[in-house]
Specification:
Elements: H1 15-44, H2 48-59, H3 65-72, H4 76-88, E1 92-97, E2 100-108, H5 110-131, H6 136-164
Antiparallel strand pairs: 1-2
Domain HTH marR-type: 12-151
InterPro entries: HTH_MarR-typ, MarR/SlyA-like, WH-like_DNA-bd_sf, WH_DNA-bd_sf
Protein name: MarR family transcriptional regulator
Length: 165
């Protein structure tokens, strides 16, 4: 009489496996967001780098060209060209710092930014529906992760640009 072999469950993934899975999924999502950004920039008649810099400007407060250069790792000369193009397109205004007339702030033009946000709301609707499935506590963890992930990405970009220079 033969004995039926009992299948054993595969071992549960360890933390290193989970981190590898998460890193792969983040890279895949990042690649898709990069592709999306290229399509959106094209739709708006902008360079993709200009659009990404515009996003950084809209996410900050009192962003200066120097800060933008630092965060992106672009030279101050390159940032001047980026800012000029974004301003000509009507998405930002240069505002002098009232406390220091030599310093400029890059101020988003709300009506123009809303045009981009309207496009993004339509495109991101399924993603927002997925996020709505999470509890408030889970969203706090995701927010913490997103913030740390962003800061790490900024540092990695700056470090890689320095290696190239």
């Amino acid at each position: 009489m033969s004995v039926k072999q009992q299948k054993t469950a595969p071992p549960a993934p360890g933390i290193d496996d989970r981190i590898t899975q998460l890193e792969r999924k983040i890279r895949a999502a990042s690649a898709q967001r990069t592709l999306y950004s290229g399509v959106l920039a094209s739709k708006l008649g902008m360079h993709q780098t200009d659009l990404e810099c515009l996003f950084i400007i809209t996410l900050g407060e009192n962003v200066t060209p120097g800060q933008l250069a630092s965060e992106t790792g672009l030279t101050t000369g390159a940032i001047t060209g980026v800012v000029d193009r974004i301003e000509r397109a009507g998405y930002i205004r240069r505002q002098r710092d009232p406390a220091d007339r030599r310093r400029l702030f890059l101020e988003p033009v709300p009506e123009r930014i809303e045009e981009i946000r309207a496009i993004n709301r339509r495109a991101y609707k399924p993603w927002m529906e997925e996020l709505a499935r999470y509890s408030e506590a889970e969203l706090e963890i995701l927010l913490d992760f997103a913030d740390r992930n962003y800061q790490a990405a900024v540092q990695a970009t700056i470090a890689l640009r320095r290696e190239i220079s």
